[in-house]
Design brief:
Layout lengths: L1 E9 L2 E9 L9 E9 L2 H8 L15 E9 L9 E5 L14 E4 L4 E3 L6 H23 L9 E3 L5 H12 L4 E5 L5 H7 L3 E4 L15 E6 L3 H9 L1 E9 L13 H5 L3 E4 L7 H14 L2 H6 L1 E5 L3 H9 L6 E5 L3
Parallel strand pairs: 8-9, 8-11, 9-10, 11-12, 12-13, 14-15
Antiparallel strand pairs: 1-2, 3-4, 3-6, 3-15, 4-5, 5-7
Helix pairs in contact: 1-9, 2-3, 2-7
Length: 327
């Protein structure tokens, strides 16, 4: 038996609890991992609370990422004792995830732990930080450089936003951080943000075109926030969209795209090809200040995940939440 978060739905009743799980219940897979750390992401919070139909089958162990050590493997790339990381692939939604002491998955979903990261640091970054790096890489593929002009990051005090601010600032960009929590200004300045933008200035319906402000953007919000960011991009600016914290809709016009040549790039971290994953982790190793990583990460035990999930949905959690799965 081992401990894990268990989500179930019976007779229309949705529940999430910390309980013992029999190892024989682990799903199919060619690699079994003893999980050391996982994280609490926005998607995990949705799954645990049942606020959105994230979970596709029941029962389910949530946790869209984890870092740990291989216990058994029939996959040619991994052997017992290897340190590995998993992000996405539907884990925690369609396949049991990382918020438990053991996980069994397909070896093709794993990547080796990248030097110089420890297992704990890898989950300090987690799917949120890995997604942020995918956004930065997407901006670069579109030709964006610090010389192109200032950039903006929405949801800047959250997991993706915090890492995006820190990485972009270290790369030399002038970063504006959008947040609905003005009390986090000092934290965001410490990460490297030059300017703080009040979220309310972007969260209401806006004009098809606004004053040109930014050359690049990382958006985790969607909704009116994304529409207003697009409207305020400079000529041939680039926007990466990777989240829907403010809504799944996109109440915009084509004006920014046909009059200013703005590019909107969708960034998906769940099914990203392995070469992109490895590139993102290698870039994080060079472009993320590990000293700052500590300041944007809080560590909690597995038992605290259930109470933190609704707080995250309410916007009351700052930065990254690392879950120490094995105490």
């Amino acid at each position: 038996m081992f401990q894990g978060i268990w989500i179930n739905k019976e007779d229309g009743h949705y529940s999430a609890q910390l309980r013992g799980i029999n190892k024989e219940q682990l799903p199919e897979g060619d690699v079994t991992v003893r999980v050391a750390y996982s994280t609490l992401n926005y998607k995990d919070a949705l799954a645990i609370t049942g606020a959105s139909p994230v979970v596709r089958q029941f029962p389910m162990v949530p946790g869209i990422d984890f870092a740990g050590v291989v216990e058994t493997s029939s996959h040619p790339d991994y052997k017992p004792g290897d340190s590995v990381v998993l992000n996405g692939w539907g884990v925690g939604e369609k396949h049991w995830g990382g918020l438990a002491e053991f996980a069994r998955v397909k070896g093709d979903w794993l990547v080796p732990l990248q030097s110089p990261f420890t297992l704990r640091q890898a989950m300090g970054i987690g799917t949120a930080g890995y997604t942020a790096m995918l956004c930065v890489l997407a901006l670069e593929r579109q030709g964006l450089t610090p010389a192109s002009g200032p950039v903006v990051v929405t949801g800047a005090a959250g997991g993706v936003g915090s890492v995006a601010v820190a990485v972009l600032a270290k790369l030399g960009y002038e970063v504006s951080a959008v947040t609905g929590r003005p009390e986090q200004a000092e934290y965001l300045h410490k990460l490297g943000a030059r300017h703080i933008v009040e979220r309310s200035t972007l969260s209401a319906p806006g004009k098809p075109l606004a004053k040109e402000q930014w050359a690049g953007a990382v958006d985790v919000a969607g909704g009116h926030v994304l529409a207003n960011v697009c409207a305020a991009m400079r000529y041939r600016g680039v926007v990466t969209a990777c989240g829907l914290a403010s809504g799944m809709d996109f109440p915009a016009t084509v004006a920014p795209f046909i009059l200013r040549g703005v590019t909107l790039v969708g960034v998906d971290s769940v099914m990203a090809p392995r070469p992109e994953r490895l590139q993102a982790w290698k870039r994080l190793a060079s472009d993320l200040d590990l000293g700052l990583l500590e300041s944007l990460t809080q560590e909690v035990p597995l038992a605290d995940v259930l109470k933190l999930a609704p707080q995250m949905l309410a916007g009351q959690v700052r930065g990254r939440v690392t879950v120490a799965v094995r105490g």
